[in-house]
Amino acid sequence: MPTPRRTILKRLGAAAVVTTGAAVVNGTTSASAATASGEDDILLDSFTGTDDQKLTAALDLARTSSPRRPIRLSPRSHTFSQTRTTFSGLRILGPNVGWQNPEIANTAGALPQCNVTLNCGNGAKSWLVGTSTTYNVMVAGITFKSSNGVSQFYHHPYSAGTSYATTLDTLSFFGFKHVLGTPADPFSMTLVTTKGSWTCVGVQDTQFSLRGSDNFLWVAGDLNYGWQGANQGRYLMRFSNLSKTAVKHLYLTARGGSRAVLVEATTQGGLDFTDCVIEGQNANDQAMGALIVTKGQASFTNIKLNFAMARPTDFTDQKDTGYIMVLGGTALINNVWVNKANLPGTSTQVSESIPVVDVRGGTAYVGTVIGCGAGWAAKPLARAAGGTLVADQSLRTS
Length: 398
What we know:
Layout: H1 5-20, E1 23-25, E2 28-30, E3 42-43, H2 51-64, E4 71-72, E5 77-80, E6 84-85, E7 91-93, E8 115-118, E9 128-129, E10 134-135, E11 138-146, E12 152-155, E13 163-164, E14 167-174, E15 178-180, E16 187-190, E17 193-201, E18 208-213, E19 216-227, E20 235-243, E21 245-248, E22 250-254, E23 259-264, E24 271-279, E25 292-294, E26 297-306, E27 324-326, E28 330-339, E29 357-359, E30 363-371, E31 381-384, E32 388-391, E33 396-397
Parallel strand pairs: 3-4, 4-7, 5-8, 6-9, 7-11, 8-11, 9-12, 10-13, 11-14, 12-15, 13-16, 14-17, 16-18, 17-19, 18-20, 19-21, 19-22, 20-23, 21-24, 22-24, 23-25, 24-26, 25-27, 26-28, 27-29, 28-30, 29-31, 30-32, 31-33
Antiparallel strand pairs: 1-2
């Protein structure tokens, strides 16, 4: 009996996945590892009604499917307002996965854009909310925009267990209050992977507040994220009790009143930052205070640390005393390139008496810190006003 044509096409689609990494979706080829075959997708636009009504119907179908079927959005603009409770196996995917930056115009021809405007709140009123431990949630290939400046993408508090083995792939965020977690209630995560190229712009507050362990954050990807303005010393990213986690390829721009990274309450070690750029915008668009404050256990390796401590008197919540402030715990700091900012409104550089690493508590092991760019008369300074400093010969110490 001849093999039906449909079966042959299915086999050809499977072969494409094996040989090229592409999948056949609705008769087209997508280069995303997040894609599934067209007959397995739940297509949002196969339902009627508003976007929220369509998503409700799609979620009902996905929740009862076995194995879980992914919900596939269309290459168009969507608007969602309702808060959604996550469940194990939930997958919401754009039409493909590829770099998208909501700041840059005229990119629609580069790939089918999938834009989602969220008109929701934050915390328990976020778009996605975890109310119990969930497994294998995935969101991929979508540019999210906040309509109101108070939206949050995903909230999973520690009181509700953990978001386990979640994958978040190639997402962009414009105008959000928060993306994952809040400073008062961090996102609880275990074995979570963030990957692909991410962008966070037009931000209204700290985008990432994280806790948990055993995660791989942008190890196979990158995050480009900046904040400008009088932000009262708030941080771009807060890592609260986050251990045994690799964090790579952050490009963080903390301008004006914002700081970049806070590490606190981490006691199991293994929060490792590598291959990151953490800086003010440039010598004349500076970070006014510290870039990194750590009170836990963390390492910072192969870091570019630039344009900070231009006017630390702007801050009242704490006294900023160095590019990196070690206030407790244990910090391993190695292979760091440093560029100096100019003092605001002048061509005079920040003084070399400002330490690159200032230890006020705990222990810091510091090595191979290099001042680059013009104007360095001496080695960068590491200082211990409290705690313990162990520094190599690349630094002056006091």
